[in-house]
């Protein structure tokens, strides 16, 4: 649709011209390709490709309008930096007018088509206990959780029923019979104990050999939710599973990316940082910066650098505490810079110093780390990579201010540690733009 908008806009602009059109399909391709790339990048930055975005035209228009404005600005910058791509303001305006209704109609058609469930996968869950209950909870709490339909749950001996009895499938001679009867394409294993005679290994093997996908619940949530569920983990899965790449090549690529991204961000935000420093100084005096001990890679501590957003006596009692909603310790300037994440910008110098990475799990204070390591299984795994200014948990979950929030964010951090790559880092940076622009999760 975006490629078509460029050709259509240029055609309309020169429709009444007597002479031959000043472009051909081939000659206009670089401009069309650049416009398409810029607009997809802009829409991604506004969260239009997030799984949790509401599927309606009003929400689409709400995000599309700033995406179009951002795209127009980026295209103008591209024209300035690459004059050979210059389309002209008249053509670009026409292209935008064509692209806006085109994207809305395309999305409306997609929403309608996807709501029919023609490509919806269907799965049977093996188990009716606590791990199986998670599938019911997820489906009830997340309206975007619709890509896979759970047909029902298969009971095993000695399991306590923790799912609705109406969702339990009737007993049959074999799993394969259930699969054939309900047309399932996948079986998800959601039982705690797999040893002993009650685990139907032969039935599962029969399903596997007949082309039915057999998935562990941990792998299922990793694939569908972008997180690794803590209560589904066991040490052997971490040891023998894939991912967790800490090779020298990956570390070198990440290091180059950190320096490049930090340099660009520092140059782009230096005026904002200077204005912020002046505002803090005028409202509450010195110090402008706030240094705080945090836990980094391998459990080593370092001093993180942030703009001071709270009063000087924020922790006068001496005990660290979680930030709360409408925290009275936050200054007026602090409310603004915390909402827009400007207070995090000085951490660029932590990245350049090698203590942090640009993307990674957020570093936590030693006081909370010691507490969380005793209460949350596998919490220390997140310290196998450098902490980051932004991360997968920051763009996928709200602000964390409790042990339960720490567990939820850890599940996203574990996913990042297992699957981190340059591509995932770029996706996180794009999603971070949405978090900053829309003020999501600030406290």
From TrEMBL:
<dbReference type="InterPro" id="IPR017475">
    <property type="entry name" value="EPS_sugar_tfrase"/>
</dbReference>
<dbReference type="InterPro" id="IPR003362">
    <property type="entry name" value="Bact_transf"/>
</dbReference>
<feature type="transmembrane region" description="Helical">
    <location>
        <begin position="86"/>
        <end position="105"/>
    </location>
</feature>
<keyword id="KW-0812">Transmembrane</keyword>
<dbReference type="Pfam" id="PF02397">
    <property type="entry name" value="Bac_transf"/>
</dbReference>
<keyword id="KW-1133">Transmembrane helix</keyword>
<dbReference type="GO" id="GO:0016780">
    <property type="term" value="F:phosphotransferase activity, for other substituted phosphate groups"/>
</dbReference>
<keyword id="KW-0472">Membrane</keyword>
<comment type="similarity">
    <text>Belongs to the bacterial sugar transferase family.</text>
</comment>
<feature type="transmembrane region" description="Helical">
    <location>
        <begin position="28"/>
        <end position="49"/>
    </location>
</feature>
<protein>
    <submittedName>
        <fullName>Sugar transferase, PEP-CTERM system associated/exopolysaccharide biosynthesis polyprenyl glycosylphosphotransferase</fullName>
    </submittedName>
</protein>
<keyword id="KW-0808">Transferase</keyword>
<feature type="domain" description="Bacterial sugar transferase">
    <location>
        <begin position="254"/>
        <end position="437"/>
    </location>
</feature>
<feature type="transmembrane region" description="Helical">
    <location>
        <begin position="256"/>
        <end position="278"/>
    </location>
</feature>
<dbReference type="InterPro" id="IPR017464">
    <property type="entry name" value="Sugar_tfrase_EpsB_2"/>
</dbReference>
<feature type="transmembrane region" description="Helical">
    <location>
        <begin position="61"/>
        <end position="80"/>
    </location>
</feature>
<dbReference type="GO" id="GO:0016020">
    <property type="term" value="C:membrane"/>
</dbReference>
